[in-house]
Amino acid sequence: MEVIYDNLVGQELVAVDTVQLKSEHKAELPTNAKKVMGVTCQVLAQTSTVQANEVTIGGNLVMRLVFINELDKYDSQDIVQPYEKKLTVKDLTGISNISGDAQIMSCQWDIQDNALQVSVILNVTINGVKEKNTRLVSDLAGEVEVRKLEQKILTFNAALDDQFEIEEQIDLDSNCEGVLGVDTNAFIKDVAASEGKVAVKGVVAVNIIGVKTVDGNTVPYNTVNEIEFAKSLVVTGTTAEDLATGAVKVNGVNVHVENGNKGSILVLKIELKFRGCSYVYKNCQSVVDAISFDKELAFETSQFEHVEILPQVNTTVDLENNMNLPANMPYLARVLAVDGVSINNLEVNAADGKAVLTGVLVANVLVENEEHLASNYLAEAPFQTHVRWDALDGEYQINATVVPLLLNVKARRGVELLLDAKLGISLQASTTKVTTMVTSVVVGKDKTDDGSAIRIYIIGDKENLWDLAKRTNLSCAELLKQNPNLENGCTPGERIVVYRHEKVAL
Fold first, then answer.
1. Which domains does the chain have, with CATH numbers?
2. SS3 state at 245
3. Half-sphere exposure of 387 (CA within 13 A, CB side)
4. For position 501, what pLDDT does the model report?
């Protein structure tokens, strides 16, 4: 008898570590700033390097100040400071393609001694690719009948990491006197694999904070635009059956205003960074059981773990929230502008074929009271929403990305804020599957024959044709030939006649 082996080589994307880091920053205020109205923070140009068991996360923290200048006009300035954090990861054995990703969880600011003090909490996820090699028994040759397991195993193929630029020109309102700042958020609408390629489609939400004159006063205002984009990545080895996942972030923004034929034009050059993965299906065929008609067989097995993922779900949801303002706040006349919109404390769970998301929508809101005095209010609106996902159950762990695409805020009755938001949601679900595989077969001594040519056998509970073949040392085909009634299934308690042979030829 010949034992034929095969190697199952697989890779899977694993979360090596997830930590929260605090980053402190201090910056001098602009000399023409009389009063700071609001500060928002954004992480751009992220980098990650690995040396031994140390992962270095870096990037630029962009702090945008909206303030009243010496002319009692609204003004803004971006302050860019680099940051770098080092993380020690305990065990990276067998893990490659390590990368880090940082997201701002919260941002707090204060003015002390005419300087801006900013404290940022970063949520850092360290990912890597783990290789798994298993030797399997794929077939047996000789006087033997084999039962095989055939399945498709999804395995990691390639890490997708690409940067690209999009350019857009946006017509500003005719009464716009200037631009205080531009907030951008990117959202993936679709990721699809094809022959040797991965196609990425998405949208960039652009929130423009401009200034205009109302009743003789210069006040901020918002406009929101959406820019669609498409990008094709060359990925060796992918087919249309494979899966691709990923997310996109804004890595840098270049903004300037030009004069057009119909008025002012905002010219944008946005650098986007896409990071994702492609997964391929491998056909796996292995022996799970066998009947030898002349030798004793002993099997050694192992538990093969592999990660199963569901196709990525990308959708948008609308949220509404009515917020009561603190009692000590002055009566609100109107909302001037909204910026620094983010999602904090995001949690996601699987339940009853749907993904339930809870979190807090946070935004800086510039408001004006009845005495025409402006102030900044940090609005925090808890929310819960769900996305229908029929293939989902409690076994799956879900990774979610939620991106604010649109937020309108209005003052109501002087003591309430009405929030109307549009969120882009990307969901990725995975679970660990465990399969028992035969890793080796030991061929033992010759089988002994009891000498009886005819035997009556009583079918036991839960026995199938394969179980009968093993017990009687006959092939499934020979049993069916001798007992055609078994084609309709095995009935517990039924008696069958077994004719023994010295050798069974398959």
1. 2-281+308-434 (no CATH), 449-506 (3.10.350.10)
2. strand
3. 26
4. 57
